[in-house]
Specification:
- The chain contains 12 helices and 9 strands.
- With about 270 residues, it is of the alpha/beta class.
- It has a single domain, classed as Aldolase class I (TIM Barrel), CATH 3.20.20.70.
- A 9-stranded parallel sheet has the order 5-4-3-2-1-9-8-7-6.
- Helix 2 links the parallel strand 1 and strand 2 (about 50).
- The longest helix has 26 residues, at about 245-270.
- The chain starts with a helix and ends with a helix.
Length: about 270
């Protein structure tokens, strides 16, 4: 059983939902990332989503694009990110870590070399935005051999047949994009999301996480009532952007916001239990 599967089982038994923060590795500075990962766990993160900086993050909005630029100024690449995960694992063997990024760096490293290096570092799942399941080729087998969960996106426009195809290949959790557009978009129709998540639950037993557009504790709480996990990215990265010259202040702001979301989610489930 993978760390991701174990974590979701533990949460179900406790009557809680997963909180998954996203941060870009190396933002605001490479020396901050490992400490930030630990601090996010202390603030209530159940799974960490760590972005691999990339020069053309087509699925991300301006906030995360700028985060990638800040990290790339420090020459943070895929091997550096794996080194950060390895350093994190020195004192945390339980919290699942998912790498989120794009195929180009993996292609450059090589599928098998990447899978083996990710496993050795302590990575648990891989979400490649620009790699649909039917185009994975031998990467699928490489990830499976390494015990890494492939995580895929499902969009509001995804049809039933394709939804089933994605769910057949997904492990760990399915990432439902709560709105049309890129990360950081503003409008969020939670009732519409609830209907789509319910459809996914009828198709698959894999947990469903929801992300994009969740920026406030009350949104996280409402979303946690319909999804197995709440993914928060741009709202946290904005806190880093506002304090890019003050890394410690950025860490404090990010963990404070995440902690408020954790509190709101837990309170919502106490009231409805």
């Amino acid at each position: 059983m993978s760390r991701i599967e174990t974590r979701f089982r533990e949460l179900r038994e406790a009557g809680r939902k997963a909180l998954i923060p996203y941060v870009t590795a190396g933002d605001p500075h490479p020396d901050v990332t490992v400490d930030l990962m630990h601090r996010l766990v202390e603030a209530g993160a159940d799974i960490l989503e760590l972005g691999v900086p990339f020069s053309d993050p087509i699925g991300d909005g301006p906030v995360i694009q700028l985060a990638c630029e800040r990290a790339l100024k420090h020459h943070v690449g895929l091997r550096d990110v794996l080194g950060m995960v390895k350093a994190f694992r020195q004192t945390d063997q339980r919290t699942p870590v998912v790498l989120m990024g794009y195929m180009n760096p993996i292609e450059v490293m090589g599928h098998m070399a990447f899978a083996e290096a990710a496993k050795a570092a302590g990575v648990d799942g891989v979400l490649t935005v620009d790699m649909p399941p039917e185009e994975m080729g031998d990467l699928s087998g490489c990830l499976a051999d390494a015990g890494l969960d492939p995580i895929f996106l499902v969009a509001p426009t995804t049809g039933e047949q394709r939804m089933r195809l994605i769910c057949e290949h997904a492990r760990g959790f399915v990432y439902y994009v709560s709105l049309k557009g890129v990360t950081g978009s503003a409008s969020l129709d939670i009732d519409a999301v609830a209907e789509r998540v319910e459809r996914l639950h009828r198709i698959t037993g894999v947990p469903v996480g929801v992300g994009f557009g969740i920026s406030k504790p009350e949104q996280a709480a409402r979303m946690s009532r319909v999804a197995d996990a709440v993914v928060v990215g741009s709202a946290l990265v904005k806190q880093i952007e506002a304090r890019a010259d003050d890394p410690e202040g950025a860490v404090e702001a990010v963990t404070r916001l995440l902690g408020s979301m954790r509190h709101a989610m837990d309170a919502a489930h106490v009231r409805t239990a």
